[in-house]
User: Fold this.
Amino acid sequence: MEYQLCPSILSADFNRLGEQIQVLEEQGLKWLHIDVMDGDFVPSISFGMPVIRSIRRESHMFFDVHLMVTEPERYIQDFVECGADSITVHAEACEDLERTVERIRDAGVKAGIALKPATSPMEISYLLQEIDMLLLMTVQPGFGGQEYIEDSTEKIRQTRQLLKDEGVDIPIQVDGGINDQTLPLVLEAGASRIVAGSYLFRGDLRQNIGKAQKIMGRYSE
Ligand code: DX5
Ligand code: ZN
Assistant:
């Protein structure tokens, strides 16, 4: 299984965003997790296309765009044009999830579905063959720096089993509350795309990446 640490720039220092992305690249990280919030699907508002367009000019990382946006179908083309490599939409935010996934694929980028902690993967099992990644939120979407919801570990395990039963070989991404304590739990349960915001950006970025990579290394051997 291919493991990726996906730093969430929501916790970055926006005054030094370019510099910090450069550090991520220097440390060998390949994925950049980009959280877009609209103040409707989630209470908060983060940032949108202009920021993505501007970091795209300098970065070769894989732009993993997580849309916490109501009816994200409206913006797929815009996000592709400003540099997304992958677009993940919330099952709870789409009127027609199947069509939205199809539109993402038609736009030529990878498609992911995100589920809030209370949403069962069974609800989208009919679409598992159509997506490239399944994102399980391990906090309520909307803010960085929250505490990991403990029930998530079992949900990851069950989802891994569901994917196996369905014969679908896609990665599980987890997002929210990842730190030294919770990282081993999600890896053990079967997640391989690990989003981390405050864990990496609070304190020394290089050191924090090193710590996370060390833990992940034990699972990717
Ligand atoms: C939350 C976002 C996350 C957030 C994670 O709604 O989707 O990506 O940045 O932050 P931490 O890792 O600090 O919980
Ligand atoms: Zn996210």
The mean pLDDT is 98.
